[in-house]
Automatic annotation (TrEMBL):
Record's keyword terms, sorted: Membrane, Transmembrane, Transmembrane helix
Highest taxon above the source species: Bacteria
Organism of derivation: Thioploca ingrica
Protein name: Uncharacterized protein
Keyword Transmembrane helix among UniProt keywords: yes
Transmembrane segments: 6-27, 48-68
Length: 69
């Protein structure tokens, strides 16, 4: 397998996952402070929506790369 085949497969898999799940979320620690023995932190939950066109585009580009080889 060369680098183009691996890239194509990764694009197809990422496109399929983007279409199946539609979004993903992660937790980001934004503020932290220590006041004596007490430690305070704020954690924000962020959600990233994956557009349908991005998933379809990744599958199409990955497919074209696989067919081009």
């Amino acid at each position: 397998m060369n680098i183009i085949e691996i890239t194509a497969i990764v694009l197809v898999v990422a496109g399929i996952l983007g279409l199946v799940y539609g979004s993903f979320s992660y937790t980001k620690s934004t503020h932290g402070t220590t006041v004596g023995p007490v430690e305070l932190s704020v954690k924000d939950k962020q959600t990233v929506n994956v557009p349908v066109w991005a998933g379809v585009g990744a599958i199409a580009i990955g497919g074209m790369l696989l067919l081009w080889l």
